Amino acid sequence: MDFILQLVTDPVAFYQTHTVLIAQVGINSILASSMFLVLYSGQLSLAAPGFMAIGAYTAVLMGLYWNTPLAVNILGGTLLAGAVGLLVGLPVLRLRGVFLAIATIGFIEALTEGVILNLPITGEGLGLKNPSADPLTGINLILISVAAVIFIVWRLTRGRLGRAWAAIRQDELAALSQGIHVARYKMIAFVLSALLAGFAGGLESHLNFYVDPNEYGVTRTVQVLTFAVLGGAGNVLGPVVGALFLTSLPEIVRIPSFDPRDVISGVILIVVIIFRPQGIVGRGGLAIIRPRWWPRPNRASSAAQAG
Amino acid sequence: MLLRLDSLQRHFGGVKAVDGVSLEIDKGSIFGLIGPNGAGKTTLVNVVTGYVRTQSGQAFLEKDHLTGLPPHRIAGLGIARTFQNIRLFPDLSALENVMIGMHTRLRDDTVVQLATLPFLRRDQRARVNDAHRLMETVGLDASEVGKRSAGELPYGDQRRLEIARALALSPRLLILDEPAAGMNPTEKQGMRELIERLNRDGLTILLIDHDMRLVMGVCRQVAVLNFGRKIADGDPEAVSADATVIKAYLGTGGEKEVAHAPGTIEVNQLQRAAQVRSSRVVEPEKALLDVQDMWVSYGAINAVRGVSLRVGAGEVVALIGANGAGKSTILNALSGLVPIASGTAVFGNLDLTNAKPSTIVARGLVQVPEGREILGRQTVLENLELATWSRRDRVAARREVEAIMGRFPILGERRALRASTLSGGERQLLAIARGLLARPKLLLLDEPSLGLAPQMVDEVFAAIAEIHRDGTTILLVEQNALRALGIADRAYVLETGQIQLTGGGQDLLHNPAVRQAYLGG
Known about the structure:
The complex is a heterodimer of chains A (307) and B (521).
Chain A: H1 2-9, H2 11-17, H3 19-40, H4 48-66, H5 70-92, H6 97-116, E1 128-129, H7 138-158, H8 160-170, H9 172-177, H10 182-207, E2 210-211, H11 218-231, H12 237-252, H13 261-275, H14 299-306
Antiparallel strand pairs in A: 1-2
Helix pairs in contact in A: 1-2, 3-7, 3-10, 3-11, 3-12, 4-5, 4-6, 4-10, 5-10, 7-8, 8-10, 11-12
Chain B: E1 3-12, E2 15-25, E3 30-34, H1 41-48, E4 56-61, E5 64-65, H2 71-77, E6 79-81, H3 94-101, H4 110-115, H5 118-137, H6 142-145, H7 155-167, E7 173-177, H8 185-200, E8 204-208, H9 212-218, E9 221-226, E10 229-234, H10 236-241, H11 243-250, H12 269-277, E11 289-298, E12 301-311, E13 316-320, H13 327-334, E14 342-347, E15 350-351, H14 357-362, E16 365-368, H15 380-386, H16 394-407, H17 409-413, H18 424-437, E17 442-446, H19 454-469, E18 473-478, H20 481-487, E19 490-495, E20 498-504, H21 505-509, H22 512-519
Parallel strand pairs in B: 3-8, 3-9, 6-7, 7-8, 13-18, 13-19, 16-17, 17-18
Antiparallel strand pairs in B: 1-2, 1-4, 4-5, 9-10, 11-12, 11-14, 14-15, 19-20
Helix pairs in contact in B: 3-7, 5-7, 15-18, 18-19
């Protein structure tokens, strides 16, 4: 309980003592936004950790070999992840539902087992040392990025693009009958999702002195999916809240010589699925924490924003 | 001319779903497309809208070539459609549904959205007003309905909302696939007025519906499909008087009766023989099955509205009526597959209103379902053996299976074949045989002739007559009215969930009201 107490009473000290945790929450939030984009467009893609790996390795390798500045490294990792996303998406997006999920897991496995663990340049199974890593200075960049990513994704879901995604998620055939180029819009969501995951990977690589190939496997996939299930996938804030909660959980509940994270997150997940299947946040976004007395936007203007 | 179809063709395996159909729809008209169940109407719509690829033939919307285009391109060219089983985006608000319909008309606004520029809010408000106006056009109260999830709306409103969404495309042609399905007469009248109003405002409409009164009432031009072919077209009067159309709707009797339509039919030998056999034309005093004032609903739709009927031991009773009249629903309710909303239904001394399906079967009320749900990957023999799995006495069960294969020799011949390799008629026989193995006191047959070629229909009906001779009571649901009335002692004519007529099979055969129930005359 010290954790929450400190957060409330002394935020500055909290920020200083938990910088690494806050950074990790931020990275996971970006990853959660990446997951949100594919889910919002009705695609059960689990490929995010793969694109994250591409972003991380590319950023570190660019720094090692070309000595380029951090921003360029991260941008490079992000763009390469997006490009790979486009190539992977071409064949894979013909699949739906659980078949897409399996194919994207296949992509992750092929990437880690087939490429990363076998290339000398990626350090094979040993991982990659990153001497220029700096866990503390990256935090501001991460926090700004998180805010920007959430804002961008939120705005995207509100326009014509977001409506097309929602339509595809609800009923692909009906979306076609409204003149929506379903394949194209799915691809846009998939590539954007890959870009965000690559971006998160690049940021994360800057935090750690070591890029560990095991970080980007199926375990991470399940974790990211859990963010979305717990928070809800109807609004970008859902997965972000899920990421915030699950990432800080081990700090909130601290028991010596026992890591209760998996047990507790498992129990919470079951409770949420049973009692609030739309996720903690659901479709309403911030409305869930908006107090009753807070002035509500009237119908016309909220509808206008929806448009 | 707005839409021109030139000998479109689409086969699925051996089934000719659309078989060389040519049509021309004039600009500004309401064109009706009708035909019995399984005639290929929806497949034709799916071919025109690009959901199903055509195998040959061409389609044009004015000068635009439609063949080979994907559905979203065809929608973009200006063909909007609704779906037979409503396909809204259920979790999105009604307003969002309509705004998605504007997709092709709007420019991409991603940059605008990201910049959240204030002057563009005005633009958005204009779109919302557009959507509201469309909702008002179809008769929805936009301020009340707009913010609600589409899936929560009452059924009739969902139908209207789907039309509003289609209108949002600003289509050149609007295709309505059974817009009045499942509606009560008042709602149907409202739908009819809406269709006429949209047409007066200059919209060309292709209307598909089973309700002949609606189609014949609003359309100036009608085409009739049967087995994938266009069998007639012209103005409604001509089409509803057309002998081939009447035959397609009411079905055909035995080979000898084919040329005759009801009302003009001569009493031929076959029927005379039947008349001698069936003398009982009134409801029996002591009934095996006694249904009083039964109501069945699917959500907001009342599919069966206050039906009372009786079946006496040893009778063959037919339940006839056009597609969507509620025939199959009655059977499903009696079998316990669909809950009975109110009224009573008693079988022997079993109250069917709250009995479990398994109990109902065990007491001897056995349904042979429409679509003959046989196990395609199992052999004929395995299918039959499965029907006896609960019997203790395996030897006797075995004998019974052999006996049933003796009665239907074709099944005996095919015993080792997978059931999926059987023809439609053979499958129907297998389904009936399986039903008989459950030792029914009352056998419910649901559309045994559905989709069968005429010779197979003969065979199936011969089998039904034989089962009846052996003493099984039968309640038969059929769209093929002539056939059903030919073998039934008594019949009930169902229209939109209510019994309109009842009487002896032979009396109804000559009653012009029967034809009306089907063709709406």
